[in-house]
Amino acid sequence: MQRPEAWPRPHPGEGAAAAPAGGPAPPARGREPAGLRLQEPSLYTIKAVFILDNDGHRLLAKYYDDTFPSMKEQMAFEKNVFNKTSRTDSEIAFFGGMTIVYKSSIDLFLYVVGSSYENELMLMSVLTCLFESLNHVLSPHKTKAGARASFCKDPALYLIKQWKNVEKRWLLENMDGAFLVLDEIVDGGVILESDPQQVIQKVNFRVLQSAKEQIKWSLLK
After folding, report:
1. Residue 69 C-alpha from the chain's centroid
2. Which of 6, 18, 158, 216 keeps 20 to 30 A from 102, CA to CA?
3. Using CA atoms, how far apart are residues 30 and 80, in angstroms rounded to an integer?
4. How far apart are CA 64 and CA 110, in angstroms?
5. For residue 70, what are the contacts with CB-CB under 8 A and spacing of at least 6?
6. Rounded to whole angstroms, how far apart are CA atoms 74 and 67?
7. DSSP characters over 78-124
8. What CATH fold (topology level) applies to the domain 46-139+164-220?
9. CA distance readout (Å), 202 to 67, 137, 183
10. SS3 of 62, please?
11. Is the dihedral of CA 96, 99, 103, 109 positive or negative?
C-alpha cells in the first residue's frame, strides 16, 4: 500500500499554520493600522518639569529625556508653552506632540510635561503633589492654632489662600529645597511619589541628615 505523502514542514517563521501541499493557503495577516497600536507601558512617564515666572523666564527646570537636548531648545520650548498657556484658564494643553498640565500661583507658572499618550490625571497628580509640597516647604510657617482658626472661619477661603501661597520670592530664596522636593517626586522621568505628606517627610529627613553631617564635620575640625 502506498504511504500517504508527508506534510511539508513549515519554513522558518511560518509556524504551525502552514497549509499542506496543494491545499488552500492560509489568509495573509494584514498589517495592524498604526493608529490602533497600543503604546508599550513605561515607567518613564515624565518628560520635563519646569517653573517659570510671570514673564515666562525659567526659575527651575529638569528634563528627563533627549527630546530637547540643548539648553537653547529647552528655553525655546518653555517660551512657546508659556505663550500658549499663560492667558488661558485651562489646566491641560497639547503642544508639539506632548501633553502638558500646568497651574499658576501669584507670579509663578508650574508645568509638568508628558508624552501625547500619557494619562492627564497621572500628570496632574504629579503637578498637585509638587505644588502642595512646595507650598509647605517654601511658604512662611504659620502656627497650627492660627491655621486652624482661619480654616474654621471660612474653609473655602482658607483653601484658596493655601493654593495661592507659593510665589517667586520664596522659590528663589529656597531653591535647594525646591530641587529636593522635585527629586522626591520624579527621578529620571519615573514617578516616585504623589502624596505630598510623604514627600515632605522625606525632604525633612534629608535636611535633618544633612544638618547632622555638617555638625559632625564641624566638631571634627
Report:
1. 18
2. 158
3. 41
4. 16
5. none
6. 9
7. HHHHHHHHTT---SEEEETTEEEEEEEETTEEEEEEEETTS-HHHHH
8. Beta-Lactamase (3.30.450)
9. 30, 12, 10
10. strand
11. negative
How many residues comprise the chain?
A: 221
Q: Which residues contact 198 (CB under 8 A, 6 or more apart)?
A: none
DSSP annotation of 34 = G
Which of these, 93, 145, 101, lies nearest to 121 by C-alpha position? 101
Higher pLDDT, 93 or 40: 93
Residue whose entry in the numeric block shows the C-alpha cell 540643548: 70
Distance CA 61, CA 211 (A): 26
Q: Which of 205, 207, 202, 211 is nearest to 184 (CA)?
A: 202
- Per-state percent for the chain, helix, strand, coil, to nearest 5: 45, 20, 35
Dihedral angle over CA of 111, 205, 144, 137, nearest 10:
-30
The pLDDT value given to residue 166? 76
List Cβ neighbours of 150 (8 Å cut-off, separation of 6 or more). Answer: 157, 158, 161
Minimum mean pLDDT range among 111-125, 145-159, 174-188, 197-211: 145-159
Residue 176's nearest CA partner among 196, 201, 200, 203 is: 203
Looking at residue 69, the DSSP 8-state letter turns out to be -
Residue with cell 471660612: 154
With contact defined as beta carbons under 8 Å apart, do 202 and 181 qualify? no
